[in-house]
Amino acid sequence: MRNGSGSGPGGDTGDMALCSSGSSCARAKPVQVTRVHITDVTRRNRRSLLDCAPVRKFFIGFVLISVAVCPAETIRLKNGRSIVADNVREKDGKVEYEIGDNTYRIPKSLVEKIESSIPPLADPTFGTTSPAASPKNPNDGYAKPVPPTPTASAQELRVAADDPALKVVHDGKVDLDVLNQLDSSGKADSAAAGYFMAGRFEYDHGDRDAARRYFERAMGYAPDNAAILSHYAALLVQSGRGRDAINYAEHATQVAPDSADAFAILGYAYFSSDRSRDAIAPWEKSLQLRPDEKLQALLDKVRRELSVEANFTERDTGRFTLRYEGSATKDTFRALLISALDKDYDELSADLGVSPSQNIPVILYTEQAFFDVTQAPTWTGAINDGKLRIPVRGLDYVTPELGRVLKHELTHSFINQVAAGRCPQWLNEGVAQMEEGRSLDGRAAHLAQFYKEGVQIPLNALEGSFLKFSTTEALVAYDESLAAALYIRDNYGTSDIRRLLERVGQGGTLEQAMGDILHMDYAHFERELGQYLSSH
């Protein structure tokens, strides 16, 4: 299951999973009453789900009761995603919204709420940012945990509230002339604040490379500023460089021992470096300074993990760090599993042109221990939340089903590396299904009918987590994701999939990357996708 991530529906066995944003996901357990270690839904069962009246009714059988026009601009989806639109209205049991000249429709059941007020601009203290401008924080569901954006006030930056450095960003861009003036001013704190402002602007707008450069310039002027250190460390963690972040985060806690942000980010740096035990103390300190429900939940999960894995054996293979309970699996099985992962690793390196920067933890659990640690829904069969968590029971060899699980989950780790943790969920899941060898088979005809009738789930509504979708919604979401990935591969090649991932990792939205590389926006892409499905 990215950004966690997991294996979805489809393929030779029709497996189904519900996954979240980011790089990790949960692989769905079978629909059958009998519980097995890996998903085992047949293609016939999946087709029957798409054929059955309740599923069709869900998407196209709504009765017109009323039409309500809302002055809303922000649609909050149940999967945690937000859509900022020009106009929003409810019609025929759906939510219609306009972005530019294009109109989209999504089932109302996917919507948590519609906000009628215009989202505020970022506060001068940087405590909040516009949902349209800032990258989504993928801490929901089973995404790989990443630190939230720290806060920073003028006082923390050691400048007056009216310092010109705080106005280095205007008219939607960084004013380089102002930065040059700050360089020449001889005022280190003011220059540091200016470069921090520029870095924070690029950070909020998804350009992590530019943000990193600006933060580094800011630290050159103020190497002991906790706000700058914390932002830089958070950026490194979000970019998959947790080990590099540790020294900066530790320094931030030393110069600001009362900063909840600094201690929280230090914990995330340890956690992302596979040092979960070391993450506990800074997280406890952060929670003492400022309660936080998400951080508390993650801390509780780490404690469960350490309790279950207290007597596990650890083996470093060079690419993977394998942990397992000695009596639960056989030596021969573990050797076969690592061999399968190494083969997948080589194939993914060739396909995506990159390799993860750190060893990938792979943890083998008994089925009960898996659920004790993850607290995952009962349908879950595997999770990648930065660590590949695989429940195994009574296996002596890598079955075809397990092989698909491993390839799918490992793909999410590679995508996270290429896209710097910013890959929208539909592309993440589509590529993972494609890499594990799934095909749409007969389901393409049903999807084609959805697209013909205009009742598909728009792809821009599938950029966030799938975890809160119903089974029916998730079924279609995964098939649409696979179809979209296959369309790009068949018409543009795997190299353009890699370019899309790289462009997203560099900043900006997926739709912008699609415009640059595929020369089409979402509306055009979905029209082409519908025609592609009709021909299969």
How would you summarize the topology of this molecule?
Blueprint: E1 18-19, E2 25-28, H1 43-51, H2 53-60, E3 67-70, E4 74-77, E5 82-84, E6 87-91, E7 94-99, E8 102-107, E9 111-115, E10 169-170, E11 173-174, H3 176-185, H4 188-204, H5 208-221, H6 226-238, H7 242-255, H8 260-272, H9 276-289, H10 293-308, E12 313-316, E13 320-324, H11 331-352, E14 360-365, H12 367-374, E15 380-384, E16 388-391, H13 400-418, H14 425-435, H15 443-453, H16 471-492, H17 494-506, H18 510-517, H19 522-534
Parallel strand pairs: 13-14, 14-16
Antiparallel strand pairs: 1-2, 2-15, 3-6, 4-5, 4-9, 6-7, 7-8, 10-11, 12-13, 15-16
Helix pairs in contact: 3-4, 4-5, 5-6, 6-7, 6-8, 7-8, 8-9, 9-10, 10-12, 11-13, 13-14, 14-16, 15-19, 16-17, 17-18
What key attributes describe this structure?
disordered N terminus; Zincin-like; four-stranded antiparallel β-sheet; 536 residues; alpha+beta; globular; 48% helix
Can you describe what's shown?
The protein is α+β, with helices and mostly antiparallel strands. Among the domains are: 18-47 and 420-534; 313-400, Zincin-like, CATH 3.30.2010. The chain is 48% helix and 12% strand. It has 19 helices and 16 strands. The strands form 4 sheets. It has a 7-stranded mixed sheet. Strands 3-6-7-8 form a 4-stranded antiparallel sheet, with no helix packed on it. A hairpin with a 3-residue loop joins strand 15 and strand 16 (388-391). Helix 3 (176-185) packs antiparallel against helix 4 (188-204), helix 9 packs antiparallel against helix 10 (293-308) and helix 13 packs across helix 14. The longest helix is centred in the middle third of the chain and has 22 residues, at 331-352. The chain is globular. The model is unreliable at 1-24, 26-72 and 117-142 (pLDDT under 50).
